[in-house]
Amino acid sequence: LDSKGQDGMILLRTVSRLVGYLSAGQPGRVSKLHHPVYTCAVKHRAFGSTDLEYRGFNARRYLEERCPGNEFEVNDKKIHTQWNMSTIHNFYKEFHREWDNSNAKLLEFASGPYIHTLISAAPYVGQIYHSDYLEQCRGEALMWRDKNPNAYDFFPYFKYAVNTLEGEEGSEVVKKREELLRSKLKDSLFVDMNSENMLPGYSGKFDIIYSGYCIEAISSDYKTVMQGVYDMLNPKGFLLMLASIGCSWYMVDGVKYANYPLRIEEAITTLREVGFTLWYTESVKRKYEDGVTYINDKEGYSCFIAQKL
Fold it and tell me: Rounded to whole angstroms, what are the CA distances from 296 to 54, 72, 245?
């Protein structure tokens, strides 16, 4: 099913939809999707910037470029951010009945310096763990949690999630959500997805793993990392993954970083090969405009919801 989205962007969804997720049905229950069978030769190879290059990664500049606070008013960023946050919101709204909300553990896998992708999760899990390879990215998350006066301001994203997506009115409910997330954000863990032990400082497993645009950006072996993600989940645990499609580079503060140009078919094939049951996929095709300077060359972005059964 192809349909025109805002400003001519193309929304691509699987014909079979998840009952209760985007269409009418019994709330919170799920039906298995029947995807077409892909026959593709998937070749995994090392692809990415060097460790030295990433050590110089400017986390604050990354936030300033990608989370400027006014991006809900900026056309290209507005569409992308709204899609990201509404996708995450819909996942927790519909799937939270599948786990124990008071005890469930969530890992945001290789989060970068973001925390706004955790806003919709806070009411539906007991513990949240941020993670990243870089100390400067982990530091941004912990500065926000600890109310450091130099912390980045994510308040516009809390307003969008709580006031717009959830329909709650007023600033007090937004502030309460900030405090709820702070209380559940237990730590920011060191993660090295190119190591056999990706989370050396944590030995437990998780009920939900969220991965947003990270695995294709950092991994030297895509399938091996996906196998590691699968292994970190408890039985019946869920993976919510957002990924850039066909992106070979991105820029931060004028520095260009290499990115693995993932294809949708490859992601689906890999998820199944490592053991996941795939529930839902959705993709948005990017519209390029003349005269606009872009900070990456992605063709679009996709959502994958999968479960370890």
Answer: 17, 19, 11
